Amino acid sequence: ASLSGNPAAMDMILANPKKMSWNYLSRNPHPTAIAMLEANQDKIDWEEIGANIGIFKPQVDPADLMVLLTQ
């Protein structure tokens, strides 16, 4: 079940949905996991999703950030 939190395991998660843990999936930043959570909001673990970096969209372009950091 904890495999559900591993972004590299999405193929296995999708192949075995009955073994998936929504709690762990709520932490998974993979875009497919995020899409699954968006489509199944009633199954989201709202405490766990707060630690999921995949739910946040960057406000700064990474290239611009590098320029800022090197100044």
Measured by DSSP, the beta-strand proportion falls in under 5%
Task: Provide the helix percentage.
Answer: 40-55%
User: Could you name the ranges where pLDDT drops below 50 across 5 or more consecutive residues?
Assistant: none
**Helices and strands, in N-to-C order?**
HHHHH
Oligomer: single chain
Mean of residue pLDDT values: 88
| Main beta sheet | none
- Count of individual beta strands: 0
Walk me through this protein's architecture.
This protein has helices at residues 10-15, 22-25, 31-39, 46-49, 62-69. It is mainly alpha-helical. The protein starts with 9 loop residues before the first helix and ends with a helix.
Characteristic terms for this protein:
71 residues; mainly alpha; 5 helices; elongated
Quick take:
The chain has 71 residues and is mainly α. 44% of the residues lie in helices and 0% in strands.
